[in-house]
Specification:
By secondary structure, the protein is mainly alpha-helical. Helices cover 66% and strands 0% of the residues. It contains 5 helices and no strands. The longest helix has 19 residues.
Amino acid sequence: MKKYFLFDDEPITGSQYLIRVIVGSLLSAIIVGLWILSSTGYKRSGALGWSNELRIFCSIAIPIHGLGNLVAREVDSFGANVDLIFLGLSIFHLILLFKNGNKSLVK
């Protein structure tokens, strides 16, 4: 269980990413889900061979995307600028989900 919370170089596949995002989104009501989402984004971007700066961006962007999905109705009243931000985060999330990773790293 401890491995879900660590920011290490463990490569994860797209299906593992999807399962962890679902669990992290469900647990976001209790703050621990945000940590799971953050470490999941970091690990998945590492499996794709992205730079350390982009991995840190993923660890920040994926929890924001998860929270945005949970409070979508409340965020809708903020206007088009927030919609564009969440559209960009959704595209980023889909890249992490569907892009093939480094097959030598992913087991």
